[in-house]
């Protein structure tokens, strides 16, 4: 029996599959075609990243020249460089990743949470949609590390410009007029474990030990271990026993273990402090350039780990033995993310992370992200959010709805002064500062009823766009991750609202036709 293939390339599909990703990719391409000014911004970010890498290579070459032996024949072939002048232009080299590829995967990272983990790499390699998007434009799937480096080179200013252009499209298509916004905040986990004094102290001291041993292996420092390995193991075991203590006698047992742990830490930190002081005093010019860079990195990481160990030990002394309430800004909360804070929001579970505030429009678009370091009060960001929305959409929102956390007489007066016609605070505090006639008006009641929509938005972002826990560390990196997720969410929302309006128009047309 002879088999006849329908397609000459023997592929299952001859066209792009009808899928959510295909719609998402088509919208991204149409968007970037409408806003050609965004690609030069991405190119400028990649140029700046390339110049930083070029300057780093130039410093390494200059350092290498300084340590070369006096070989005139060899040195005469090496061009002179000015160490005080950083390179200002990029020369012809390997082809750079196109800005369009960076843009596409920037938004896909926001939608899928990652472009570098195993699941994401397998997904992109197997998706025919990705091939159908890249191939017609002469593009190919980049390597994992090159993609991550280029995505991280994009600045938050460029991400903000993409969000601005997105909202302008919504205005142009009349998907939303942004005259109504609803504002709320949520707790988001950082990429870090919940703080534990004993574990933080043990892990910090372990890190300080490891950095010293790494420096010794590289031949940078010489010392004998002595009792240090034994002390390290003792501290790790004590931290484990402290965390495992249970029962009625657990508090007294923990105190004894904490006392022994602090005494062992003091014995271990004394010789380590002297070793690090010696390393800082030594001249590293005799080392090769690469070894100098490694030495500096391990030295700084080790000293920071030693400082963290001292800080964790001081927390234990103040909290356990002096019965002090250590202020939040003096606590060591995370070794991975120094900008993370304990987020306490009402009677909900306390998390280590960030407290972003989102402004949602009537049609469901996210029009602003407010993110500061620490457990910031909602009342302190409301006016800034209104001003940011005004600058982004070009007009002051007429109606603003929030919960009681944003309520204050100062915020109400400031919002009205900016041009907001109706501002409602849901809760007893908001009722107290709002005139009775305005509070009981049908318009205000309707706005307060709509406030739950922003709660739904938070759930959608956390469940569908990986907003519940961040992958990156540091305030600016977390802001970048959140902006990518917000832009990706808005793309899906544009598709949804556009389809809904088209369906409503079709139903209206059919209704008019039937009436006629």
UniProtKB/TrEMBL annotation:
Residues 362-490 form the Transposase IS4-like domain. GO terms for biological process: DNA transposition. GO terms for molecular function: DNA binding; transposase activity. Pfam families: DDE_Tnp_1. This is IS5 family transposase. It comes from Oligosphaera ethanolica.
């Amino acid at each position: 029996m002879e088999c006849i293939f329908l397609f000459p390339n023997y592929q299952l599909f001859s066209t792009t599959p009808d899928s959510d990703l295909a719609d998402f990719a088509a919208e991204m391409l149409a968007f970037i075609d409408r806003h050609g000014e965004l690609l030069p911004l991405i190119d400028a970010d990649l140029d700046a990243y390339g110049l930083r890498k070029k300057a780093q290579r130039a410093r390494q070459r200059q350092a290498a020249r300084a340590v070369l032996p006096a070989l005139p024949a060899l040195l005469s072939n090496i061009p002179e460089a000015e160490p005080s002048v950083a390179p200002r232009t990029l020369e012809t080299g390997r082809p750079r990743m196109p800005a369009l590829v960076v843009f596409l995967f920037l938004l896909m990272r926001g939608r899928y949470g990652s472009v570098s983990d195993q699941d994401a790499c397998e997904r992109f390699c197997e998706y025919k949609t990705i091939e159908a998007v890249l191939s017609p434009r002469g593009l190919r799937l980049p390597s994992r590390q090159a993609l991550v480096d280029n995505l991280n080179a994009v600045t938050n200013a460029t991400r903000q410009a993409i969000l601005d252009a997105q909202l302008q499209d919504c205005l142009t298509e009349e998907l939303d007029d942004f005259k109504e916004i609803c504002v709320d905040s949520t707790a988001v986990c950082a990429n870090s474990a919940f703080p534990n004094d004993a574990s933080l102290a043990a892990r910090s001291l372990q890190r300080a030990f490891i950095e010293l041993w790494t420096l010794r292996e590289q031949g940078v420092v010489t010392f004998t271990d002595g009792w240090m390995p034994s002390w390290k193991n003792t501290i790790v075991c004590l931290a484990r026993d402290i965390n495992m203590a249970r029962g009625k006698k657990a508090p007294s047992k923990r105190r004894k273990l904490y006392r022994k742990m602090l005494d062992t830490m003091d014995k271990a930190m004394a010789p380590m402090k002297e070793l690090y002081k010696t390393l800082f005093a030594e001249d590293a010019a005799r080392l090769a350039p690469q070894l100098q860079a490694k030495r500096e990195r391990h030295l700084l990481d080790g000293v920071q780990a030693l400082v963290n160990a001292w800080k964790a030990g001081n927390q234990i002394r103040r909290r356990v033995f002096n019965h002090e309430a250590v202020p939040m800004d003096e606590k060591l909360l995370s070794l991975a993310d120094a900008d993370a804070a304990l987020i306490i929001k009402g009677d909900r579970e306390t998390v280590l992370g960030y407290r972003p505030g989102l402004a949602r429009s009537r049609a469901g678009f996210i029009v602003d992200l407010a993110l500061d370091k620490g457990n910031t009060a909602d009342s302190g960001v409301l006016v800034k959010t209104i001003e940011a929305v005004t600058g982004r959409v070009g007009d002051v929102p007429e109606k603003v709805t929030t919960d009681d956390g944003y309520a204050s007489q100062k915020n109400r007066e400031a919002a009205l002064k900016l041009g907001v016609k109706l501002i409602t605070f849901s809760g007893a505090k908001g009722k107290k500062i709002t005139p009775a006639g305005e509070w009981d008006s049908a318009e205000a009641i309707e706005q307060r009823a709509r406030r739950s929509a922003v709660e739904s938005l938070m759930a959608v972002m956390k469940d569908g766009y990986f907003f519940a826990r961040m992958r990156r560390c540091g305030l600016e990196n977390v802001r970048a991750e959140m902006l990518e997720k917000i832009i990706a969410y808005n793309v899906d929302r544009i598709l949804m609202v556009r389809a809904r309006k088209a369906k409503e128009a079709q139903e209206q047309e059919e209704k008019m036709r039937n009436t006629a």
